[in-house]
Every structure is written in structure tokens, then in C-alpha cells.
Fold this protein.
Amino acid sequence: MTKHIGIVGCSAEGAALCYRTICLEAEPLMGRHAHPEVTMHTIALAEYMKPIDAGAGWKPVAELMLRSADALKRAGAEFLICPDNTIHEAMPFVLPRSPLPWLHIAEEVGKEAKRRGYRKLGITGTKFLVSGPVYPEKLEQMGIAYLRPTREQQEQINTIIFDELVRGEQTPESLFYFEQVIESLKLQGCDAVVLGCTELPLLVNENESPLPALDSTRTLARAALRHALATRIS
């Protein structure tokens, strides 16, 4: 028996990458064409962006996440993940009312950073994520230092994410710009970079990055897979 994974989607590209990672990486562990039961529920990204863009706080975002959580509970999911870093800022409003337990994306990335011995991480992602507390809170608890890109860099990366990556578009110009940002983080003492938007791994990979890259999407997917298989292994 394996646990039924529930995915709370937000942007399609990131959610799809997370789902594919779970399914493809399960096969070597479970057998040919095998993977745990997975259900995904996705409310349109537009609905999430309305309160975020309006500066209406994170409670309305939490309500959307809880709608998905309730739907996934009804579908039989036993625990939840959200392959969207930004909306994890709503978690303080989600967890007290959630019908199911969650794995936290920043916590899983922090665990992976500790496992690999990294001490100072560059945080990249949407401007909301990078300027917010999601990663700082988790990294500080683990004793890991961090650095944010400049405000100008945050704005440009945010534009790349919302104008290109969430639509499945990756351009050489955007890759070059993002590599320059990572290089600047490296020069400031970072020994790894967090790809803290679930679409960023679609733009840059470990071989192209000037720093070792912590892929938040695949890290969360692998954590969910381990969690789903834990009862089977034991």
C-alpha cells in the first residue's frame, strides 16, 4: 500500500512538472509503469493572482487552497503538497483548517540543502516569494544563511515568470539574464541557488547554472514520493 498524494495546483506548468516527476521517478522504486495514486486539483492562476496583485493579504489565497484541499480529501488523498512556492505564504491561514497534513516546499528544500552541505543559499522566484518570509523562516530554523537578488533583479525575474514561464515559454535571453543573476549571487558568497519558482527548473538546469541548483519542484515531488512509499517500505 502507498499513500494517496494530493496536489494543490496553482500554475499549470509547475504543477505538471511536479506530477510528472512523481510518476516517472516512482517507476524505479515500484516497478514498471507504477506510481502512487495521485489526484490534482487546480483553481485558475488568475483567481490566485487577484488578491496577490491587489495586496489583499494571504487569507483569500488560503481560502482557494482550502477549496482544493477539501476537494482532494473527498477524492481520497491522504496528504497534500503544493508545487507553488509563492502561495506558501498563506500556509499560516491554511494549516489550522486543513482537512489533511501538508509537506512544506521550503522545508523540503532546506532539508535537501542541509543534506548536501550548503551554507548560504541565493533565493530566486517571484518578487512576492523572494521578498516574503517563506524561505527565510525555514532556512533560519535550519541555520542556513540566505541572500536575495536586488530589487531590480527581482522585478525582472518576476516578469520572466509571469509573462513567459507560466505559459510554457523559455527564451535564450531570459536564460542568459537568469544565469547572470545566479552569477551575482555566487560572487556574494552563495554556494547554491534555490529555484524557488516551480517553473524556473524549466528555464535553467544544474548544468547551465553557475551555482548548484536546488530545484524546489522536483525536491517537493521526491519528498512526496518518499512519504507516499513510507508505509510500503516499512
